[in-house]
UniProtKB/TrEMBL annotation:
Catalyzes the NAD(P)H-dependent reduction of ketopantoate into pantoic acid. Catalyzes the NADPH-dependent reduction of ketopantoate into pantoic acid. Residues 3-149 form the Ketopantoate reductase N-terminal domain. The keyword Oxidoreductase applies. Its EC number is 1.1.1.169. It comes from Halomarina ordinaria. GO terms for molecular function: 2-dehydropantoate 2-reductase activity. Belongs to the ketopantoate reductase family. This is 2-dehydropantoate 2-reductase. PANTHER family: 2-DEHYDROPANTOATE 2-REDUCTASE, 2-DEHYDROPANTOATE 2-REDUCTASE-RELATED.
Length: 302
């Protein structure tokens, strides 16, 4: 399968490198010149349970040099989806399936501005990765991935993508309720990301303390009401699930906490901000999420 990875940071490099190692024709596309140059010169160095190895894979900063692939895999930060796809227009045509495994809400809708809706595939993954430096990725955690067509019914091409990922060591299933799956991951992000970023604590603090659990419960319950108004089916034990995720990833610093610490733009607009905007469409009050979003905006602008 010919695959272009748009946004080849930690997760994009993990997926792209793993798929290249399995024999697929992969090109990593990223704006970080040193990262791309290092991969081109000495391969992508991936560290996981099997140790460290260098994986030969093409990389470029210029999407215009990439022919339209079978699959474009989008891993840029969700706030950059539109900009990244606008720059990647040369490799997108009506035959290319485009898969988003990004955080947050609205990515599939953005992608549909560049390819037909029938080509949009969305998904969620529980894999974790850390970019340790130019051309160096650490596979921090493994887990299942679920994908599905966002606007139309699934088909053999989606089955083929899932099969290719699974054969490469990235276990993937096709979901017939991918919008519910995306919302469930958003609810996990709602409960963990802004609270940890603002309190400057690791995920486990939310599970260990009464204060943490109260914030999780308040934020998640608000967002569940929005999801259900949008027609999604949400598990009844979702708060317990979020707390369990926080406990299982207890020593992790959430991506939003990492961004705030580094002075980078966060994905708050696609998580808590998106919940606030969608709540307004349904005349729902979400004061906790509104406050969390405003405080993160202040923190990232400081």
């Amino acid at each position: 399968m010919e695959i272009a990875v748009i946004g080849s940071g930690a997760m994009g490099s993990l997926y792209g490198g793993t798929l290249a190692e399995a024999g697929h024709d992969v090109t990593l596309v990223d704006v970080w010149e040193e990262h791309v140059r290092t991969i081109e010169e000495s391969g992508l160095r991936l560290t996981d349970d099997d140790g460290e190895r260098a994986i030969p894979v093409r990389a470029t900063t210029d999407p215009g040099t990439v022919s339209p692939p079978d699959l474009a895999l989008v891993f840029v930060k969700s706030t950059q989806t539109d900009v990244a796809l606008d720059g990647a227009r040369p490799l997108l045509d009506e035959r290319v399936d485009v898969l988003s495994l990004q955080n947050g809400l609205g990515n599939a809708e953005d992608i549909a501005g560049y390819v037909p809706e029938r080509n949009v595939v969305a998904g969620v993954t529980t894999h974790g990765a850390t970019l340790e430096g130019p051309g160096r990725v650490f596979h921090a955690g493994s887990g299942p991935t679920r994908i599905g067509r966002y606007f139309v019914d699934d088909d053999d091409r989606v089955d083929a993508i899932a099969g290719a990922f699974t054969a490469a060591g990235l276990p993937t299933t096709v979901s017939d309720a991918i919008r519910d799956d995306i919302w469930e991951k958003v609810l996990v992000n709602v409960g963990i990301n802004a609270p940890t970023a603002l309190a400057r604590v690791e995920n486990g603090a939310l599970a260990r303390t009464q204060e943490g659990r109260r914030v999780v419960e308040a934020a998640v319950h608000e967002a569940v009401a929005v999801a259900r108004h949008e027609g999604c089916t949400i598990r009844d034990d979702i708060v317990d699930h979020v707390v369990d995720v926080a406990e299982r990833t207890g020593t992790n610093a959430s991506s939003m906490l990492q961004d705030v610490r580094a002075g980078r733009e966060t994905e708050v607009e696609r998580i808590h901000g998106a919940v606030v905007r969608r709540a307004a469409r349904h005349d729902l009050a979400v004061p906790v999420n509104r406050t969390l979003a405003d405080l993160v905006r202040l923190a990232q602008g400081a």
